[in-house]
Amino acid sequence: MLIHLSSIRRVHILLGILLLALLALPGASLYYEYSGGRSCARCHEIWQPYHEWQSSAHRDIACTECHGNVFTLDAGFHLNNIRRLWSHLRNDVPEQIRLKPPQVYETAERCRKCHQQEWAGWAGSLHSATYAEIFLDPTHNRQRRLADDCLRCHGMDFAGGIRDLVVPLNTTGPWRLHDARLASRAAITCLDCHQMHRQGLPLMKPAVKPQTATTQKILQPSLALFDRRELMHVSAGRLPLPEMRDGERIVKISPDRRQALCYQCHAPLATFEVASGDDRTPVGVHEGLSCLACHENHGQKTRASCATCHPRLSNCGLDVETMDTTFKSTKSPHNIHFVKCADCHAKGIPKPRPGTRRARLALQLTVNSRQLTAR
């Protein structure tokens, strides 16, 4: 009888503890959500990111909106928080709190809640390619062996080297991912090119706003490259624009600082020769134009970009969208980035007669090109 009563008492105690926990969790969640980040800053190691957040465009957004809370359905999330608490209690505090690659990916997934238009553009672009699409491509893998350097752009959020991602590392295959769950995960996320705790004004309503690349602010404070080695962002304003060459000639490059971010992945070889490596620096008729003059920031769509500068016809009287360039067909020998008048006019470019329609078109193109180059 005594054993039975003792068992009942233990059950009641356990139920009481469980009830207290259930009551405490919502209270703790509300406290953290409505404390304006101050509760997070009680740990001295959080002060730096807390102060950065206070002057950022996200200062009106609670920490828990992006970083999760007690109700986050992810065991790994809570286990990581327990590890951090244990490190705090042991005074084993890092110099700077930094998100690890898996946490960067999880946080980026929450961007779409507010940035719906940008997310939709990114989701429909090549920048949203998955790990399977990039690292299991037989055509690429037979030509070039996969290496750690691939992760510099195609896998900034992956915690490990190429040996931890794909097997076998050869040019014969068949290839597979060590972790099959990565197959459908995007290899390039929002936080690879943007930093959350950046200075700026909070987003104004409406959150979804029509805006084109040519009307946006030239250099948004959020633009930054995520360095997977240092686990930190480098602002686009601190990234250099390269000095590109076309043979012995130095190529004119748009002063648009946003391109510095593009060049980190769409980069030339060490010779800085135009069209080498993954470079797409425009020369010829498009020399001096910014990448953003033709490519949208997130969607990379270019279908309507010709109309930004061109009338329907080029200054030689051809329809710019149907003439023989890679804009019309990727199989064209005339790459839209490098096409020159001399490619078709090998004997010289005839000058338009003053007062003709062709002369007026050429003048309009010159004015439009100068305006875009100055951006």
Q: What would you say this structure looks like, in words?
A:
This protein is 30% helix and 4% strand. It is mostly helical and 375 residues long. It has a domain at 130-187. It has a two-stranded antiparallel ribbon. It has a two-stranded antiparallel ribbon with strand order 3-4. Strand 1 (166-167) and strand 2 (176-177) form a beta hairpin.
The main sheet comes to: 2 strands, antiparallel
What gross morphology would you assign?
A: elongated
Residue fraction in strands: under 5%
Order of helices and strands: HHHHHHHHEEEEEEHHH
Q: Which regions are unreliable across 5 or more consecutive residues at pLDDT < 50?
A: 207-216
Query: Mean pLDDT score, rounded?
Result: 79
Main sheet strand line-up: 1-2
What structural class is derived from the secondary structure elements? Answer: mainly alpha
Count every beta strand, where a strand is a DSSP E run of 2 or more residues: 6
Radius of gyration: 27 Å
Q: What is the helix fraction of residues, given as a range?
A: 25-40%
- The end-to-end distance, rounded to whole angstroms, is 87 Å
Tally the helices: what do you get? 11
Which helices and strands, and how do they pair?
Layout: H1 2-34, H2 47-54, H3 63-67, H4 75-89, H5 101-108, H6 116-123, H7 131-135, H8 138-143, E1 166-167, E2 176-177, E3 224-227, E4 232-235, E5 245-246, E6 249-250, H9 259-263, H10 306-309, H11 357-373
Antiparallel strand pairs: 1-2, 3-4, 5-6
